Amino acid sequence: MKKKKRIFCPYCSEKISKKMENDILREYCHSCNLFFYDNPLPVVSTILEKDRKILLVKRGNKPYKGMWCLPSGFAETGETIEVAALRELEEETGVKAKITTFVDADSCTNYLYGDLIFLSFEVEQTGGKLEAGDDAVAVKYFSIEKIPKLAFLSNTKAIDSYIKTKKEYWAIIDSFSLSLDKNDIKNKDKNLLSNKLIELIEKNSKSIAVLWLKDVRENRSTPHYHKFNKQKLLDRNQIVVSQFCKWLSGNYDRNDIRDFYFKLGHERQKEGFALSEVISSLSLIRKYIWEYALSRRMWTKAIDIYMALELERRMMLFFDKATYNISKAYENSI
Questions:
Q1: CA-CA distances (angstroms) from residue 228 to 122, 236, 272, 277, 324?
Q2: Which of 180, 233, 240, 315, by CA, is between 20 and 30 Å from 251?
Q3: Half-sphere exposure of 81 toward its Cβ, with a 13 Å CA cutoff?
Q4: In this structure, is residue 173 part of a structural domain?
């Protein structure tokens, strides 16, 4: 059923005509000398998110009966938009909440109600019990990756806006919550700050290797490297950088580090490298990864600072473990 048009004046019952006002053709009652104004109806929606799941309600009434949507409804005369949003949330889901952030505003035209303005808010639960109420037949949390087709496009836009504002925050939380001594990183969402770091380091690995090579062949702490084959040194640098990138991605655990660098320690000792030289060369690799990352990308935005902190933390753990296992290999050969 479409929204009915006004035919008769509600005050004098005379038939309504149309008349221009301020270059707009409006409905008009000649008898009452009165213009009628049709303004968009305000609709409120709430986004309640827990563990990256968003609460939706399944509609029990027309329009769009049986479809999912955010807890939504019309603001009533005499109540603020914020109060309306929280009222609708409680009526439809049983959840009491408080508003934390305004998320989105969107205009649309509905075949039944006419022009609407959707105002969407992020809320935080303060009480209540989750249960379907009012015109909802079900309530359920949906993962942000599995949001069903929603009854209202404005709800979809609001959720997209919400996810966009949270994306970097979630990436920070994921990256800093990783237990780096376990393999659970493999089960984490792949939208991590590490991905950007890996891309940056891998893309510039050759430039990093060239800077390292120049230093390691001139540095007083690495004399045995001064006359060693340049190409072999570059190849070895690339291997270490590659191992570090695997560590960042979660595809390289502490056992891999132990086995690889224990073997590397034995090989370097047989080649005549002093332990102090090998450790110094690793420190130089770490130095140029860090310096290159900072010079090319870091510190331009707030999230870049978190990326820099994450990089520093991962580098410390990786290279400390590498150094330890190389040292153990040298000790076992004594």
A1: 61, 12, 11, 13, 24
A2: 233
A3: 14
A4: no
pLDDT-derived band at 184 (thresholds 50, 70, 90) equals very low
Same domain, 208 and 319: yes
Local structure of residue 30 (DSSP, 8 states):
T
Contact 31, 12 (CB under 8 A): yes
Residue 290's closest CA among 265, 272, 308, 317? 308
Q: What is the chain's mean pLDDT, rounded?
A: 86
Q: How far apart are CA 218 and CA 62, in angstroms?
A: 78
Selection from 316, 244, 233, 238 nearest residue 273 by Cα: 233
Q: How far does the chain reach from its first CA to its final CA, in angstroms?
A: 90
Please check whether residue 174 lies inside any domain of the structure.
no
Number of domains, the chain = 3
- Kindly report the CATH number assigned to the domain that includes residue 290: 1.10.490.10
Question: Residue holding tokens 């690889």?
Answer: 260
Residues 16 and 77 in one domain: no
* CA dihedral over 163, 165, 167, 173, signed as positive or negative: negative
pLDDT digits (tens, 9 = 90+) for 9-39: 888 888 989 888 888 888 889 899 988 877 7
Q: What are the residue ranges of helices labelled H in 130-189?
A: 153-177
The pTM of this model reads 0.57
What's the CA gap between 297 and 109, in Å, rounded? Answer: 44
List the domain range (segments joined by +) for residue 267: 184-332
